[in-house]
C-alpha cells in the first residue's frame, strides 16, 4: 500500500562535506532502514577545516517544502538541526503545528561541541519558548543544557536537575549529554529523563579522536528513525546511544582535520 514504508524528516541545513547536518541525518535514516526526507533551511560551504560560508534559504521556500511534503507523504517522525535565526524558528514551528509530521526530536543546536554560542539572543529565546515545547525528545549537549537552564553542571545531580528544568520548558523526554572533552576521562555519562518521570544513565567509553562531526545529528536522527518505525522512546534512545557510540569507535579516514563519524560501523545494530 502507498506510504506504508516508515518515512522520517530532517529539518536542517546542508553541510557540503557530508559530515553533519542534513547529510548526517540522511546517512542515519538509511542505516536505520527508514526513508529519509528533508526540509532544507540553509546551505553550508565547509570542509574538515571549518565552515567558510552559510546561506539561509528564503522563508517562503522553506514553508513550501513543508506544504509539498504534506500533500503526498506520510511522515511518521521528524527532527530539527541547526535553525540559525528567530524568523526561521517561527517558520518551522508554524509549519510543524500545521501539518502532522509525527513526533519531533529537537537537537537544540545552540553551541558548538566546545561551548561557543551559535545563536543570537532572539533566536535562542525562540528556540526555548517555541521549539522546545513541541519536542517529544530534546537532546541538548552539556553546554546547551547549561544555557537553557542557567544551571552550572559540575555533578551528576546537577545534570539531573538540568534535565528536569528542560522538561518544565515543555520537552516531554530529555537527554542531557555529558561532558566529553577531557583527554584524561575514561567515560561519558548521558542522563535520560522520560515523560513518565523514570530515568536512567547511558555510559560509554570516551574516545580521543578528531572524527566526531555529526555525533549529535546521528543520535537525534536515530531516535527519530526509531520513532517512525513505532519503537518506544526509551528503546529508541538506547538504540541511538549504541549507534552513535559504534560510529565514533570505528574511525573513518575522511578529511584532514575534523572528520565525520563512521555510520557504516553502526549499520547492523
At CATH's second level, what is the architecture?
A: 3-Layer(aba) Sandwich
**Proportion of beta-strand residues:** 15-25%
Query: Counting H and I runs of at least 4 residues, what is the number of helices?
Result: 8
CATH superfamily: Ribokinase
Q: Structural class given helices, strands, pairing?
A: alpha/beta
Strand order of the largest sheet: 3-2-1-4-5-6-7-8-9
Would you tell me the overall average pLDDT?
94
> What coarse outline follows from CA principal-axis ratios?
globular
Rounded to an integer in angstroms, the radius of gyration calculated over CA atoms is: 17 Å
CATH topology: UDP-N-acetylmuramoyl-L-alanine:D-glutamate ligase
How many β-strands, per DSSP?
Answer: 9
Q: How many separate structural domains?
A: 1
Structure, explained:
It catalyses: 4-amino-2-methyl-5-(phosphooxymethyl)pyrimidine + ATP = 4-amino-2-methyl-5-(diphosphooxymethyl)pyrimidine + ADP; 4-amino-5-hydroxymethyl-2-methylpyrimidine + ATP = 4-amino-2-methyl-5-(phosphooxymethyl)pyrimidine + ADP + H(+). Its EC number is 2.7.1.49, 2.7.4.7. Belongs to the ThiD family. The chain has 269 residues and is of the alpha/beta class. Helix 2 (59-70) runs parallel beside helix 3 (86-98). The protein has one domain (7-266): Ribokinase (UDP-N-acetylmuramoyl-L-alanine:D-glutamate ligase, 3-Layer(aba) Sandwich). It has eight helices and nine strands. The protein has a nine-stranded mixed β-sheet with strand order 3-2-1-4-5-6-7-8-9, with helices on both faces.
Amino acid at each position: 500500500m502507498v506510504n506504508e514504508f516508515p518515512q522520517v524528516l530532517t529539518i536542517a541545513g546542508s553541510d557540503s562535506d557530508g559530515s553533519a547536518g542534513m547529510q548526517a541525518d540522511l546517512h542515519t535514516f538509511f542505516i536505520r532502514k527508514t526513508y529519509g526526507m528533508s526540509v532544507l533551511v540553509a546551505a553550508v560551504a565547509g570542509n574538515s577545516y571549518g565552515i567558510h560560508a552559510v546561506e539561509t534559504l528564503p522563508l517562503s521556500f522553506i514553508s513550501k517544502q513543508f506544504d509539498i511534503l504534506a500533500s503526498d507523504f506520510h511522515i511518521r517522525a521528524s527532527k530539527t538541526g541547526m535553525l540559525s535565526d528567530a524568523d526561521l524558528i517561527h517558520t518551522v514551528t508554524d509549519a510543524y503545528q500545521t501539518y502532522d509530521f509525527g513526533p519531533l526530536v529537537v537537537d537544540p543546536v545552540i553551541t558548538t561541541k566546545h561551548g561557543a554560542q551559535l545563536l543570537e539572543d532572539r533566536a535562542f529565546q525562540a528556540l526555548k519558548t517555541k521549539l522546545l515545547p513541541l519536542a517529544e525528545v530534546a537532546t541538548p549537549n552539556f553546554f546547551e543544557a547549561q544555557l537553557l537552564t542557567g544551571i552550572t553542571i559540575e555533578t551528576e545531580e546537577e545534570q539531573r536537575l538540568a534535565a528536569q528544568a528542560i522538561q518544565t520548558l515543555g520537552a516531554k523526554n530529555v537527554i542531557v549529554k555529558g561532558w566529553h572533552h577531557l583527554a584524561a576521562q575514561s567515560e561519558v555519562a548521558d542522563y535520560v529523563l522520560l515523560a513518565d518521570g523514570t530515568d536512567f544513565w547511558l555510559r560509554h567509553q570516551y574516545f580521543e579522536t578528531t572524527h566526531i562531526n555529526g555525533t549529535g545529528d546521528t543520535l537525534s536522527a536515530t531516535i527519530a528513525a526509531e520513532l517512525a518505525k513505532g519503537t518506544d522512546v526509551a528503546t529508541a534512545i538506547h538504540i541511538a546511544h549504541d549507534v552513535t557510540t559504534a560510529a565514533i569507535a570505528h574511525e573513518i579516514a575522511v578529511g584532514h582535520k575534523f572528520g565525520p563519524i563512521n555510520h557504516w560501523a553502526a549499520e547492523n545494530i
